[in-house]
Specification:
By secondary structure, this protein is of the alpha+beta class. It has six helices and 15 strands. α1 runs antiparallel to α3. It starts with 28 loop residues before the first strand and ends with a helix.
Length: 298
């Protein structure tokens, strides 16, 4: 129902009456209900609404068939364009997926190659560090030199200086001397309480090792770097000064041969090495680096 109310009079009691209602849409269906007012014996009676009568309004005159065809054609063309767009979108999606798969594969290959190179580089670096450490430790072995002093322990039938170091592992042992052939005391391992003994004599039948120097040689570059306090001086009293050293590591090895040396301060510009007694890291000083030997051998 459109909700439109209209009243029409009848021209006769037996004739039909045409009813025209404006405001309805053409080509639409409506349910029409009606009721009557009847005058009988001078009284006016109003009936109830009748059942709905379904009516269909006519299309007005005009080129609506052409419009309908155009609309149908437009809808069909639009549907075709949408289908084509969906197909192209799916093609682009497939290409993006293919590219993504290829890119991920290449990235994985690159990552694998990079990790392999990094691993091999790390192995080379560690091998180089071990070689350097071995050479540094070799410098700690004084062939043809005998340390003298107070021995904390003596071991016999020791075949190598390395085993001599293992035998002399007590905390108070700071150096060792091994007698070698043709010395009649071959295999005698002496453990000293000083870093190089009270005295030392050159003799072809002995090999001596400073334990602190040996332990410093075991530290890698990362350890030395972590123990170095950049642009800081050490507060310990200066025992001695060495000049012309190339690095703080050389400075540390110089300290290893002084029984009273515990730390160093190294001037990068001048190459001066200040051997220090016990103390702590002190004030800032641009160009001077310091470290405690105890940190390096921890």
């Amino acid at each position: 129902s459109s909700g439109i109310n209209a009243e029409y009079g009848v021209s006769s009691q037996t004739g039909s009456q045409a009813v025209r209602i404006s405001g309805l849409d053409s080509g639409s269906k409506y349910g029409v209900k009606c009721r009557l007012r009847v005058r009988v014996g001078g009284k006016l009676f109003l009936t109830d609404f009748s059942e709905a009568i379904i009516v269909t309004t006519d299309l007005p005159d005009g080129a609506f068939a052409e419009i309908d065809r155009e609309v149908t054609d437009y809808a069909a063309a639009t549907s075709t364009q949408i289908d084509n767009l969906v197909a192209k979108t799916n093609q682009v999606y497939d290409r993006v997926q293919s590219f993504s798969t290829t890119a991920n594969s290449r990235i994985q290959e690159f990552t694998t190659s990079f990790n392999t190179a990094e691993t091999e580089s790390g192995l080379v670096t560690r091998a180089a560090e071990k070689l350097i450490a071995g050479l540094s430790r070799d410098n700690c072995i004084r062939r043809g030199v005998r340390y003298l002093g107070t021995a904390t322990a003596v071991h016999y039938n020791v075949p190598t200086v390395y085993e001599c170091l293992e035998r002399c592992k007590a905390p108070e042992v700071l150096s060792v001397t091994l007698s070698i052939a043709p010395n009649p005391e071959k295999g005698k391992c002496e453990c000293w309480d000083k870093r190089r003994g009270y005295l030392f004599d050159r003799h072809n039948f002995y090999t001596s090792v400073n334990r602190l120097c040996w332990e410093l040689g075991a530290a890698d570059n990362e350890k030395w770097a972590s123990c170095t306090n950049l642009n800081r001086v050490h507060s310990g009293s200066t025992i001695a000064v060495s000049e012309g050293l190339a690095s703080i590591k050389e400075c540390g090895y110089a300290c290893a041969y002084r029984d009273d040396c515990a730390a160093v301060t190294y001037e990068r510009d001048t190459g001066k090495c200040y051997l220090k007694g016990s103390g702590s890291i002190g004030a800032s000083d641009v160009g001077s680096d310091s470290l405690d030997l105890s940190c390096v051998i921890e």
